[in-house]
Specification:
178 residues; mainly alpha; 7 helices
Length: 178
């Protein structure tokens, strides 16, 4: 029998070390490990956890790790998954900071980072489309994310207001349809 703390730490460490592009790029890896491999969270629970993690202050990857860890084993589980998620980034940044001055003007390194950008966009786009499918968007609801994105981009509306309005709208919709 394996130790759930070690297993969850190791799982989130692996996710953290192999993910470029931040929390949203982690979603496919988190789903594969947490939903499909370990079955710590159901496929139906995952979109809700993502929505909650997005709406809470702080780093998305840490938030979702904390929620999953808490579900596994309360505070200690949350600490194990949060540490597993944060430690790889911390170590990588520490190493880069120690040696940055040696390669900051290197053309090869600059080209590598330029090449990584499109892959990061794809890593973020794929979970977005998967979440849209799971949210069961249809011709009556597809306008919500479009109007939200346009309000943020063109009008400069704070995403916080979008989240608050969406939460209130969802609550009202739930009360009406229940």
């Amino acid at each position: 029998m394996s130790n759930i703390y070690w297993e969850s730490f190791r799982t989130f460490f692996k996710i953290g070390i192999f993910t470029l592009g931040g929390g949203y790029a982690m979603i496919p890896l988190i789903e594969e490990e947490v939903v499909n491999r370990h079955r710590w969270v159901s496929k139906e629970e995952m979109p809700d956890l993502i929505a909650i993690a997005q709406s809470c202050p702080g780093v998305f990857a840490i938030n979702i790790a904390i929620f999953i860890g808490y579900k596994l084993n309360k505070v200690r589980g949350a600490l194990a998954t949060a540490a597993g998620t944060a430690l790889p980034s911390f170590l990588i940044i520490l190493i880069i900071a120690m040696f940055f001055h040696q390669f900051e003007d290197n053309r090869v390194v600059a080209a590598m980072f330029k090449g990584i950008r499109p892959a990061v966009v794809a890593l973020i786009a794929v979970p977005t489309f998967n979440l849209a499918k799971r949210a069961q968007l249809n011709k009556f609801t597809v306008w919500i994310p479009i109007v939200s994105a346009l309000a943020i981009w063109l009008l400069g509306v704070s995403p916080i207001w979008i989240i608050i309005i969406a939460g209130i709208g969802g609550y009202i919709y739930g009360r009406i349809t229940a």
